[in-house]
């Protein structure tokens, strides 16, 4: 089988006939095109439904990365089953149906998930919210914050961005936090 050189990456590949790109570059371009198509569809969805959280709590979040589809009748699970998934598939279904407004709206993730775990009521509108806010309004003590970070370092659950820290990095951070904790306890 002849060997060819990919003009995109410069690597050689075997193929019975010459192609424009090697399989890896071709797949990379396809993934990028699909990612762009999904982003465009979400942008269309947000434009069709107002582009900001429409929950009754009035948070008005408008950052697209925090927004998604909300079902006013709490039928999200049924809708996902019907279309075979979430995200792109639900947006595509709504687009195919002409962006129907009944039972659908934009919601931020906090409102949407909060309603899911709070019997269909946004936690910001729940009578219990004031109790929780009052209980949590006292800032934590520095010792508690450092101890929680030290616990995370000890159990290797620290990240920088999307990268999980190595065992060695966690051990160094755990030692540093131990010194800081000792200093805080002396105050």
Characterization of this structure:
By secondary structure, this protein is mostly helical. It folds into three domains: 3-34, no CATH class; 49-136, no CATH class; 142-186. It has seven helices and six strands. The strands form three sheets. The protein has a two-stranded antiparallel sheet with strand order 1-2. It has a two-stranded antiparallel ribbon with strand order 3-4. The chain has a two-stranded antiparallel ribbon with strand order 5-6. Helix 1 packs across helix 3.
- The residue fraction in helices comes out at 40-55%
Shape: flat
Unreliable runs: none
Biggest sheet: strand arrangement:
1-2
Name the beta content range.
5-15%
Distance between the termini: 74 Å
Q: Counting H and I runs of at least 4 residues, what is the number of helices?
A: 7
């Amino acid at each position: 089988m002849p060997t060819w050189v990919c003009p995109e990456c410069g690597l050689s590949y075997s193929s019975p006939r010459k192609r424009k790109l090697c399989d890896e570059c071709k797949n990379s371009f396809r993934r990028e095109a699909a990612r762009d198509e999904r982003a465009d569809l979400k942008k269309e969805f947000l434009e069709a439904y107002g582009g900001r959280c429409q929950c009754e709590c009035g948070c008005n979040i408008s950052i697209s990365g925090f927004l998604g589809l909300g079902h006013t009748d709490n039928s999200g699970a049924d809708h996902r089953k019907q279309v075979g998934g979430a995200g792109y598939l639900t947006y595509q279904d709504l687009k195919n149906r002409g962006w129907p407004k009944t039972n659908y709206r934009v919601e931020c993730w906090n409102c949407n998930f909060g309603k899911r775990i709070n019997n269909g009521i946004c936690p910001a509108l729940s009578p219990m919210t004031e109790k929780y806010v009052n209980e949590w309004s006292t800032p934590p003590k520095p010792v508690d914050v450092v101890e929680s970070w030290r616990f995370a370092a000890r159990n290797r659950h620290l990240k920088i961005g999307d990268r999980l820290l190595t065992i060695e990095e966690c051990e160094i951070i755990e030692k540093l936090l131990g010194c800081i904790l000792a200093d805080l306890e002396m105050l």
